[in-house]
Amino acid sequence: MGRESIVHGDVEAIERYDRVEAKAREGEIVLSYIQAETLLAARRAGVQQVEVSPDLGLSTVSVTLTDEGVRLFRDEVVSWSDIEKIKRAETSCFLVQDRSIRAIQVFSEATNRMCSLMPTKRTPTMLIAGFTMHRIVDIDPMQDTRKKIATITPLVGRVLDTATGLGYTAIEAARTADEVVTIELDPGAQEIAHHNPWSRELFTHPKIKQVMGDAFEIVPTFADASFARIIHDPPVFSLAGELYSGQFYRELYRVLKPGGRLFHYIGDLNSKSGGTVTRGALRRLQESGFTRIVKHPEAFGVVAYK
Predict the structure, then answer these.
(1) Would residue 107 count as lying in a domain?
(2) Is residue 128 situated within a structural domain?
(3) Domain shared by 296 and 192, yes or no
């Protein structure tokens, strides 16, 4: 993916993309309470060397423990007081830079919402306005992503991902699809993805084309029958009700190829609130032209066939 892939973008978006590329090459150091626990346990044990992950579990490196703090590679040093601070913040991830730490969180002026990177025992997720963007109870965010994708396999041809988020869907889809077009509304959310080690392929994978803007406005600009698969994984209804509307579903139907499949994440189909949203979504999907719709409670969504 290159600059030309930032459709509906501007100079600021292009500059942001350049910064992201540089960060991906540098390999930023990102820590959470999980790594902090490992470091503090090693200190209590009196050891001077310990293996710890500098990228939220993707890899490990050997670091040196001193009286001052933890000496990481590239001569970054994190004080023990900062390690303690990280340990106490179980819903935040921290960027280590210039011997200091800062929480990976952004207040987006575009949406008036706070976005932050939240650790789990494995793959991090994103918090937007207090809502997690993946399931995290008894499931890992990457497992959550793969369950969604499994409902419409094989992923072939061009794939549309209507809500980028941390990019896990786009990254997984790009493993088999010819091209993945992924749309992100919020510059704040993309800034979080910039710093997430698990999102690096979003900015480097040649099959991924990023589009910045509102999916409600961008999808109508696509040609008829231009996607073989669509993954529609919007924020909760209260944050993005227009992406659950009949008008938007008709556009998704239009851009989907005959024989194509749409996965629509809705939420827990068996919960009271999820059931209400599901009934409305099923009715509007049928009114939009989808004649066969199958519930997939294991993926918290439905698959609609054209």
Answers:
(1) no
(2) no
(3) yes
pLDDT tens-digit map of 60-87: 999 999 999 999 877 789 999 999 999 9
* pLDDT of the residue at 84: 98
If phi > 0 it is left, if psi is from -120 to 50 it is alpha, else beta; for residue 289 that is: left
The strand ranges marked E within the chain are 29-31, 49-52, 61-65, 69-71, 77-79, 94-97, 100-103, 105-108, 113-118, 125-128, 131-132, 158-161, 179-184, 208-212, 227-232, 256-265, 292-296, 301-305
280 and 155 in one domain? yes
Domain boundary among 102, 126, 144: 102
Domain that holds residue 36: 29-102
Pair 211, 190: CB distance under 8 Å? no
A 10 A CB-CB count for 38 gives 17
**Residue 146 and residue 290 in one domain:** yes
Give me the residues of the chain with pLDDT under 50, please: 1-10, 13-14, 16-17, 19-25
Distance of alpha carbon 285 from its chain centroid, rounded?
25
Q: Which residue has the tokens 């994190």?
A: 78
| Burial of 81 per CB tally in 10 Å (0-12, 13-18, 19+) | exposed
Predicted pLDDT at 24: 41
Please check whether residues 262 and 232 belong to one and the same domain. yes
